[in-house]
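From the pipeline queue, job 12 of 40. The input is one protein chain; the requested action is below.

Action: predict structure.
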Amino acid sequence: MSRLNQQLIDLSYQVDELKADLFRSQEQFEAIDDQAEEAKIRAMVSETPDQAKFSHEMQVARDRLATVIAEIKSEIETLKTKQDELLEKLFEENTEN
Protein backbone atom coordinates (compact mmCIF):
# COMPACT_ATOMS: atom_id res chain seq x y z
CA MET A 1 0.00 0.00 0.00
CA SER A 2 1.37 3.36 -0.95
CA ARG A 3 2.07 6.10 1.50
CA LEU A 4 -0.68 8.26 -0.02
CA ASN A 5 -3.22 5.47 0.36
CA GLN A 6 -2.33 5.07 4.01
CA GLN A 7 -2.60 8.80 4.60
CA LEU A 8 -6.03 8.81 2.97
CA ILE A 9 -7.17 5.96 5.18
CA ASP A 10 -5.84 7.72 8.28
CA LEU A 11 -7.61 10.95 7.32
CA SER A 12 -10.81 9.04 6.71
CA TYR A 13 -10.68 7.57 10.21
CA GLN A 14 -9.99 10.99 11.69
CA VAL A 15 -12.95 12.50 9.83
CA ASP A 16 -15.20 9.67 11.00
CA GLU A 17 -14.12 10.19 14.61
CA LEU A 18 -14.70 13.93 14.36
CA LYS A 19 -18.13 13.39 12.83
CA ALA A 20 -19.03 11.14 15.75
CA ASP A 21 -17.76 13.82 18.16
CA LEU A 22 -19.76 16.43 16.28
CA PHE A 23 -22.94 14.35 16.52
CA ARG A 24 -22.49 13.87 20.28
CA SER A 25 -21.67 17.54 20.78
CA GLN A 26 -24.73 18.63 18.83
CA GLU A 27 -26.94 16.36 20.93
CA GLN A 28 -25.43 17.83 24.09
CA PHE A 29 -25.91 21.32 22.70
CA GLU A 30 -29.61 20.72 22.11
CA ALA A 31 -30.03 19.56 25.71
CA ILE A 32 -28.01 22.44 27.15
CA ASP A 33 -29.79 24.93 24.92
CA ASP A 34 -33.15 23.76 26.25
CA GLN A 35 -31.88 23.93 29.84
CA ALA A 36 -30.42 27.38 29.27
CA GLU A 37 -33.71 28.64 27.88
CA GLU A 38 -35.64 27.21 30.84
CA ALA A 39 -33.13 28.73 33.27
CA LYS A 40 -33.48 32.10 31.56
CA ILE A 41 -37.25 32.01 31.93
CA ARG A 42 -37.00 30.92 35.57
CA ALA A 43 -34.54 33.73 36.26
CA MET A 44 -36.90 36.30 34.78
CA VAL A 45 -39.88 34.98 36.69
CA SER A 46 -38.22 34.46 40.08
CA GLU A 47 -35.86 37.44 39.92
CA THR A 48 -33.55 35.81 42.46
CA PRO A 49 -29.77 36.06 42.33
CA ASP A 50 -29.42 32.27 42.42
CA GLN A 51 -31.62 31.79 39.39
CA ALA A 52 -29.87 34.60 37.53
CA LYS A 53 -26.50 33.04 38.29
CA PHE A 54 -27.67 29.60 37.16
CA SER A 55 -29.12 31.09 33.98
CA HIS A 56 -25.82 32.83 33.24
CA GLU A 57 -23.86 29.62 33.87
CA MET A 58 -26.09 27.69 31.48
CA GLN A 59 -25.65 30.34 28.80
CA VAL A 60 -21.88 30.22 29.24
CA ALA A 61 -21.93 26.42 28.95
CA ARG A 62 -24.06 26.67 25.81
CA ASP A 63 -21.70 29.23 24.27
CA ARG A 64 -18.65 27.12 25.07
CA LEU A 65 -20.21 24.07 23.49
CA ALA A 66 -21.15 26.12 20.42
CA THR A 67 -17.48 27.08 20.13
CA VAL A 68 -16.44 23.43 20.39
CA ILE A 69 -18.92 22.50 17.65
CA ALA A 70 -17.55 25.24 15.39
CA GLU A 71 -13.99 24.02 16.01
CA ILE A 72 -14.95 20.43 15.18
CA LYS A 73 -16.65 21.55 11.96
CA SER A 74 -13.57 23.56 11.03
CA GLU A 75 -11.27 20.59 11.69
CA ILE A 76 -13.47 18.34 9.55
CA GLU A 77 -13.27 20.83 6.69
CA THR A 78 -9.48 21.06 7.07
CA LEU A 79 -9.15 17.27 6.94
CA LYS A 80 -11.44 17.05 3.92
CA THR A 81 -9.27 19.61 2.14
CA LYS A 82 -6.21 17.49 2.93
CA GLN A 83 -8.04 14.43 1.60
CA ASP A 84 -8.79 16.26 -1.64
CA GLU A 85 -5.15 17.27 -2.00
CA LEU A 86 -3.99 13.69 -1.41
CA LEU A 87 -6.54 12.37 -3.90
CA GLU A 88 -5.22 14.79 -6.50
CA LYS A 89 -1.66 13.61 -5.85
CA LEU A 90 -2.76 9.99 -6.08
CA PHE A 91 -4.55 10.70 -9.35
CA GLU A 92 -1.47 12.43 -10.72
CA GLU A 93 0.71 9.47 -9.73
CA ASN A 94 -1.63 7.03 -11.41
CA THR A 95 -1.89 9.04 -14.63
CA GLU A 96 1.91 9.32 -14.87
CA ASN A 97 2.34 5.53 -14.75
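Job complete. The radius of gyration is 21 Å.
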